[in-house]
């Protein structure tokens, strides 16, 4: 599903409003110094800035991956869903619905998103927390992408958001590990979404989207809730709920897959 994350990134770039002072391109260390000043101006402590940027270098693999993922996705829905939603994943998803039934019920009551939608996203993004959530140092990834001039404002914003995650104490720098666009955690939040939608649902004072299942599932539901998802209403293509899921992923084929998976989880 990594390819679909670019739908979010590209869409977000269209609506990006902040203007950052750091100039893309040129000497990477000069760029990092400028980003350090941006971070300080945004309220990030010098200790966090120094720790995060210590020895940071560009990652050519990130840029190579980015360029490979920019093409048009050419599978049909039937082809795609057959690779993402099989009997094994459906069975495990149903087990997750039972195992976390009480938690999901509380989340549904608070955010108005049905359990099967939340669990479907969880399963697609990381095999319910057991699959690949990325192994890339997020600061290095985002600094690399921000230095690249194609979407520098978008990724400068994501880099500052990642620093704020550390500043808030949600994740230590050693746990700020993610995918090739800097997505973090069991449902793959971009750092700006982590800041905007993250929920401390286990009540420990931190939003931990890597390790805390309550935080992961509640934050996923909160993103949809804030985006206008209405419980009890249909979520198929052409509905208001289908449009609300655009904030999760702008790709129609992916949102259709969420709905298909959710239906199978509850026997529809």
Automatic annotation (TrEMBL):
Q: Which residues form the Transglycosylase SLT domain?
A: 28-236
Span of the signal peptide: 1-21
Which Pfam families does this entry report, sorted A to Z? Answer: SLT_2
Query: Would the keyword Signal turn up in this protein's UniProt record?
Result: yes
SUPFAM superfamilies given for it?
A: Lysozyme-like
Q: Please give the Gene Ontology molecular function terms for this protein.
A: peptidoglycan lytic transglycosylase activity
Q: Which InterPro entries match?
A: Lysozyme-like_dom_sf, MltB-like, MltB_2, SLT_2
Q: Does the keyword Transmembrane helix apply?
A: no
Q: Which GO terms describe its biological process?
A: peptidoglycan catabolic process
Ordered alphabetically, the record's keywords are: Signal
What protein name is recorded for this chain? Lytic transglycosylase
Q: Organism source for this protein?
A: Bradyrhizobium jicamae
Q: What is the lineage of its organism?
A: Bacteria, Pseudomonadati, Pseudomonadota, Alphaproteobacteria, Hyphomicrobiales
